[in-house]
């Protein structure tokens, strides 16, 4: 122990004597003193010494990358300890947040992480070859010719050069202007970039295309048929967000739909980015139905694989009732093709409260097959069963009798008995109305 002055201060005292310079390489020593416990007044002894040698790394900090690795290792060790001692994890409750809308910078900072939540719902569709052959018997003998954006642009250029007036609305609505050679070269270069695009920011000149009056002409210069699948997804996001329903319909019909059909035909499955592009197009349901779904049904040459993939996307996404009702009405009034049954079944299975006009149109769609002597595919029987299960109490007594006659004309050993049972045990809408009237009178 060391002697201290006779005047004793009972508070903790720190030696004030420090080395002459803090930045020297000599050890820095701090001595902390406290009075003796057993009334040994005047005697002090050191409690602990703190020594540290000054180094050249004292002014440096741990960088962000190393900090992240340290935190990851600490988290992994914590998880191992919790697993070892069987400690239950309590997930922190997420706070509710309010979105104030997207800013232009949000589109630029698009990352690949947004796919993580959707990868679980993407699946490969397996198609039965027998069903596909049966469906081919109901394909149109003269399918409509597919038209792309390039076809329409070329027609418009030819019309302008030869000064021939055309009556085709698609061609007449395309705006053709004389473009500066520098603009053409710039968008051709952008087109070459888009053929190899995978992720990250898109050129800003590409993002402004939806705001241009002659956007179809500019889009044609970038050669959409050569875009990568990731580019098609980003383009669908941009055009669905910035175009009105009519213009978005043209993009979906002239650019997105041909690419989807070609991809399925070539690879027997749909690329994940194109799958996400279709999901994004559903944010404009009217444009999607008019630009993709209804043209595929009208073409009459849609394969079972195409219809099954598109129907799976429809089933997994929420669609407003009015748009779906209009699509059901249009499909029911079309000439029958095998793919129509798949789309009808998917939309009917959403259990919308459909207007009576739509229900009557679907009933008439099925009743048209009473005189048909062909053997109908299983998909047709499945769509009829779905309709009866969902809307058996929304049909009239007369329609119910005609549907019973239909079941006698076209039968399936497994599906028809179930359909008949549902139909027999149902109450018709006119019967329910008469009962309500009688109760009111009573």
What are the key terms here?
single chain; 442 residues; four-stranded antiparallel beta sheet; 54% helix; mainly alpha; 5% strand
Can you give a write-up of this model?
The chain has helices at 64-84, 104-108, 129-136, 149-162, 169-172, 181-194, 204-207, 215-221, 229-242, 245-267, 272-281, 285-299, 304-315, 321-333, 338-348, 356-367, 378-391, 397-409, 415-424, 429-441; strands at residues 2-3, 13-14, 28-35, 43-52. It has 442 residues and is mainly α. The chain has a domain at 2-52. A 4-stranded antiparallel beta sheet has the order 1-4-3-2, with no helix packed on it. Helix 9 (229-242) packs antiparallel against helix 10, helix 9 (229-242) packs parallel to helix 11 (272-281) and helix 14 packs antiparallel against helix 15 (338-348).
The biggest beta sheet is recorded as: 4 strands, antiparallel
Shape annotation: globular
- Mean of residue pLDDT values: 77
Our count of helices gives 20
The radius of gyration over CA amounts to 36 Å
The beta-strand count equals 4
Strand line-up in the sheet with most strands: 1-4-3-2
Helix content: 40-55%
Q: Which percent band covers the strand fraction?
A: under 5%
Low-confidence segments, given as residue ranges, are 7-24, 36-50, 98-105, 108-114, 116-121, 163-172
What sequence of helices (H) and strands (E) makes up the elements? EEEEHHHHHHHHHHHHHHHHHHHH
Structural class, by secondary structure, is mainly alpha
Distance between the termini: 110 Å
């Amino acid at each position: 122990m060391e002697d201290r002055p006779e005047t004793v201060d009972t508070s903790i005292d720190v030696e004030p004597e420090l080395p002459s310079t803090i930045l020297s390489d000599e050890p820095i020593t701090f001595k902390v003193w406290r009075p003796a416990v057993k009334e040994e007044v005047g005697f002090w002894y050191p409690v602990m010494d703190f020594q540290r040698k000054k180094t050249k790394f004292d002014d440096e900090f741990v960088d962000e990358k190393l900090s992240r690795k340290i935190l990851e290792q600490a988290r992994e060790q914590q998880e191992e300890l919790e697993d070892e001692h069987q400690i239950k994890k309590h997930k922190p409750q997420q706070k509710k947040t309010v979105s104030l809308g997207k800013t232009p910078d949000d589109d630029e900072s698009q990352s690949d992480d947004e796919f993580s939540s959707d990868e679980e719902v993407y699946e490969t569709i397996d198609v039965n070859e027998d069903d596909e052959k049966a469906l081919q018997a109901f394909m149109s003998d003269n399918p409509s010719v597919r038209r792309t954006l390039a076809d329409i642009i070329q027609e418009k250029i030819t019309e302008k050069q030869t000064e021939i007036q055309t009556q085709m609305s698609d061609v007449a609505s395309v705006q053709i202007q004389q473009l500066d050679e520098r603009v053409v070269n710039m968008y051709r270069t952008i087109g070459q970039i888009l053929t190899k695009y995978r992720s990250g920011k898109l050129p800003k000149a590409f993002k402004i295309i939806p705001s241009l009056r002659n956007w179809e002409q500019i889009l044609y210069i970038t050669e959409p048929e050569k875009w990568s699948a990731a580019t098609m997804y980003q383009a669908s996001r941009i055009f669905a967000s910035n175009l009105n329903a009519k213009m978005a319909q043209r993009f979906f019909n002239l650019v997105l739909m041909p690419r989807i059909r070609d991809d399925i035909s070539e690879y027997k499955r749909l690329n994940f980015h194109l799958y996400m592009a279709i999901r994004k197009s559903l944010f404009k349901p009217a444009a999607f139905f008019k630009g993709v779904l209804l043209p595929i049904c009208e073409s009459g040459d849609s394969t079972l694989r195409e219809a099954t993939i598109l129907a799976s996307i429809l089933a997994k996404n929420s669609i407003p009732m009015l748009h779906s009702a209009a699509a059901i009405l249009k499909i029911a009034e079309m000439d029958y093709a095998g793919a129509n049954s798949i789309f009808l079944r998917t939309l009917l299975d959403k259990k919308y409260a459909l207007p009576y006009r739509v229900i009557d149109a679907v009933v008439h769609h099925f009743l048209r097959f009473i005189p048909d002597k062909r053997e109908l595919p299983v998909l047709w029987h499945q769509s009829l069963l779905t309709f009866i299960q969902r809307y058996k109490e929304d049909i009239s007594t007369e329609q119910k009798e005609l549907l019973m006659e239909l079941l006698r004309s076209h039968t399936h050993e497994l599906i028809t008995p179930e359909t008949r049972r549902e139909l027999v045990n149902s109450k018709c809408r006119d019967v329910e109305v008469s009962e309500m009237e009688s109760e009111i009178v009573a």
